[in-house]
Every structure is written in C-alpha cells, then in structure tokens.
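Quiz preparation item.
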C-alpha cells in the first residue's frame, strides 16, 4: 500500500471557495432574491459569494433546504478550501509538544 504524504502540497489542488460554486449554482437569481429565499441578509450572502466569509453549518443547512442539495456537500467544499489555505499559509513558531527521545 502506498503511503500518502499529507504534507506534499503538490498532490493537492487549489479548490475554489464554495461561494464561487454557489454563485454559479444560483445562475441568474439575484443576491437579493436568493438571500430572501435563504432567510439571511443580502450582506451575509454577498460575503459568502465573494469569498469573504465561510459557509457555516447553519448556512449549509439553509442551502441544502433551498437548493435540494446535501448539507455535507457545502461543508466538505468549505473544509477542503480551508485545509488547502491553511497548508499553504502555515502558522509560524509552532514547536512539537514532545521532543524525540535520543
């Protein structure tokens, strides 16, 4: 069995922010109309569509109910996006909890 190197950034791709996918999904529906149907403010939806805010579990549930999709598809897209971003912008000054024993 081949061992997967999760630190190998070349095997990953740069996933689109789920807001971009949502924008394509909504097609010709205006942000104002979509936000009314989702029961959120126009600002909230606009921030997601423009990649400035994440899709929360609550928003994923709203999208699922309104669009007939699964909750998991939206959360998985957001998770993949967040993981890729974190791996390509790693935190600084992190030290191991346990030093290797000599």
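Solution:
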């Amino acid at each position: 069995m081949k061992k997967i190197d999760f630190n190998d950034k070349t095997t990953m791709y740069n996933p689109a922010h789920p807001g971009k996918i949502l924008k394509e999904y909504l097609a010709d529906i205006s942000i104002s109309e979509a936000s009314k149907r989702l029961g959120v403010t126009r600002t909230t939806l606009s921030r997601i569509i423009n990649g400035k805010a994440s899709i929360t579990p609550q928003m994923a549930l709203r999208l699922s109910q309104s669009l007939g999709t699964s909750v998991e598809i939206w959360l998985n897209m957001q998770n993949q996006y967040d993981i890729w971003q974190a791996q390509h912008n790693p935190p600084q000054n992190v030290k191991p909890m346990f030093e290797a024993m000599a």
